[in-house]
Amino acid sequence: MAPRETDDNPTEADQPAAAQREWERLWKEGDDDGPAGAGAESGQPAKADAEPETDTEPEDERGADADTSETPDADTETSGTADDDSPPPSTPARSNADKVVTPHLDDERIAAVRRVAAAGRRWRNLQLAGCAALLAVAMTAGAIAIGAAKDSGAAGVAVGSSAVSPELLASGSLDASIASLQAHLRTQPKDFDGWATLGLAYVEQARTKGDPSRYPQAQAAFQRSLKISPANENALEGRAALAAARHEFKEALTYADQVLKENPYSERALCSRIDALVELGRYADASKAADLADARKPGVPVFTRYAYVHELRGDVSTARKVLEQALAAATSPGDISYVAGTLGQLAWNQGDYKTALNDYGRALAADENYLPALEGRARTQAALGDRAAAIKGMELVVSRYPLPQPLVELGELYESRGAEGDKAKAEDQYALVDAWIALARANGVNADLDTALAAADHGDVKSALKAARAEWARRHTVHTADALAWALHVNGRDKEALPYARQATATNYHNASFIYHLGTIELATGHKADGRAHLAKALKLNPGFSPLGAAKARKALEATK
């Protein structure tokens, strides 16, 4: 599913006429919220801007400034130096209450993306270049529609000092907070804390809306902040968060340690350090870092990480106890939805579907649009046999935020249903994974793990193995070990795969997919008793762990009686 080594950017002459017309029509008619020209003409992913546009002048009267209003990318300072007083790189913002949103606009754009993706399966080059750009448009449309629904009663933009407070990011609408920061920075362009907070807001927006095009904007904001005030804490904390979001975990650890040398009690740096150590596979160090963070700065961000470190080591009871404490301490809707959603995922991993649904319900009561809870609820419904509700729920998720995991899950739900047209629908989802990966890579995200996991089952197995090897070379975690083991298996290299599959399960992390992969590889290498035991264990732990994988596990057990 990853781009082949021989793929080149398509020329216009190579693109099928019908798909090209669809691409151009959508670009002209749909993208009123971001720069349209470059993406459509060059085949490069366009930036998907989630804040609403405010320009009311005709396009030809805006002047040159209209084309340079975005936050500059990492290598080019188009907004001036630390000594100038130019406005921040953004168009003026207005309340979402003033924006007219076309009903079902996100559905229409997603449909257009899928039409181009379908054409792209026949013309590979077009799919990789064009679908990534259209996916950016689709994510923008969904973000605008959701933002308008949530923020229709937003007050006027604040320009006071409160606009630069990091706490503002957790106090209400993220889009409104970004608008406030942008307005403030237009009048105070030398406010380095304001630039750092804007960068953090962009990182959070990318995370919550699945939009990696925000990362270059975040990087530019942090660079601007550090240019004004070198080594300021907020910007360094932000760079650690950005590096982690881009899967650059060594860099994230370096930035976090740099902050902690100056301020040992920085909550963001303490959390970034735990995250980086976990994602580098340094679990013993991560556990020590979690203990230290809990002693220095107890609170929701630290509690959730402390719980995950324990879950990775098989201590589920401690993980749940800590998360329940975190939920009791949570006050903002964002914290409540995050912690409750994490509790739901923990219950799901143990096959406790009733508890999972209850936890996801608590998350959605706090934020009805919280993506992980919507996705988790649909996954749980599928495991309980309510495939219709599961498909409807997962369709809602991918119509708003088409990320790799829900796209694959929806594709597998279509495959497991097997109705007329479902195979084509499934292929559409898998093609969109390629589009997201292309968009992520274009914005500096290391997407090798996503590539390996998706392509191993639903794409080019050679690409899966190449990506898994690359990710393993960077970091040794249970997730990368599992991805490499499975990529080796689907390439027929089970003897090589077996040590990695065993390493993926060595920490006693309760993950039925990992155990299923191990059992399958053991059967393939002649370890029949061990293979059967692990397949049975996976199904006992979480009998609905995958719409397709669970069925294959049962079939393998039957075949080896």
TrEMBL record:
Chain positions covered by the region annotation Disordered: 1-103
TPR repeats: 337-370
Keywords noted in UniProt: Membrane, Repeat, TPR repeat, Transmembrane, Transmembrane helix
Keyword Ribonucleoprotein among UniProt keywords: no
UniProt feature, compositional bias: Acidic residues: 51-86
UniProt keyword DNA-binding, yes or no: no
Transmembrane segments: 128-149
Stored PANTHER family: TETRATRICOPEPTIDE REPEAT PROTEIN 6, UDP-N-ACETYLGLUCOSAMINE--PEPTIDE N-ACETYLGLUCOSAMINYLTRANSFERASE SPINDLY-RELATED
Name the UniProt record assigns to this protein: Tetratricopeptide repeat protein
Biological source species: Streptomyces sp. R08
